[in-house]
């Protein structure tokens, strides 16, 4: 009898979980034409967090992180301005490199990335090489700005 109750509870849990998940999918499928990230477009394709929304989120996170580092005395305001400028320049360079891959086959893209890997700068490493910040400052910046990511961009 106890085994039957356990099985019934398990099946009920799975069914309830399935209904909750399907309700979330229905809620996300908004065909009103508002194709913001996390939603499903009218064509049924997932809208990814690219371009506008993700870029704005990233810029806001960088701005807040750099302000916190200036407030803590880890870096000064001129360094903060140079760091922000370096991130913007690096983003433009990456966008230009990746823009050239449109229309390439998978193999062509793989070869292109292999050939151009050295051209993709890591902004914090570049700032250390240029003498704008120290290696310790680069590590602190990486931890502040990119601690939410699995890999620290631009910091060895």
What topology emerges from the helices and strands here?
Layout (H helix, E strand, L loop, with lengths): L1 H27 L22 H22 L4 H23 L6 H11 L6 H7 L5 H12 L10
Q: What are the secondary-structure elements, in order, as H or E?
A: HHHHHH
Q: Indicate the low-confidence ranges by residue numbers.
A: 24-47, 150-156
Strand content: under 5%
The geometry reads as: flat
The strand count comes to 0
List keywords for this structure.
156 residues, mainly alpha, 2 domains, 6 helices, 65% helix, disordered C terminus
Note down, in words, how this protein is organized:
With 156 residues, the protein is mainly alpha-helical. The chain folds into 2 domains: 48 residues, no CATH class; 96 residues, no CATH class. The longest helix has 27 residues. The chain starts with a helix and ends in a 10-residue tail after the last helix. The C terminus is likely disordered.
């Amino acid at each position: 009898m106890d085994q039957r109750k356990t099985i019934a509870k398990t099946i009920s849990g799975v069914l309830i979980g399935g209904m909750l998940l399907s309700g979330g999918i229905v809620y996300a499928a908004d065909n009103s034409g508002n194709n913001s990230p996390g939603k499903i477009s009218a064509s049924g394709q997932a809208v990814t967090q690219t371009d506008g929304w993700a870029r704005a989120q990233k810029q806001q996170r960088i701005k807040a992180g750099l302000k916190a580092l200036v407030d803590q005395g880890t870096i000064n305001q001129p360094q903060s301005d140079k760091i922000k400028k370096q991130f913007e320049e690096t983003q433009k360079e990456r966008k230009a490199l990746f823009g050239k891959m449109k229309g390439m086959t998978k193999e062509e893209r793989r070869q292109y990335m292999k050939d151009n890997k050295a051209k993709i700068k890591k902004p914090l490493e570049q700032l250390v090489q240029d003498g704008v910040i120290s290696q310790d400052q680069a590590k602190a910046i990486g931890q502040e700005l990119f601690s939410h990511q699995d890999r620290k961009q631009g910091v060895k």
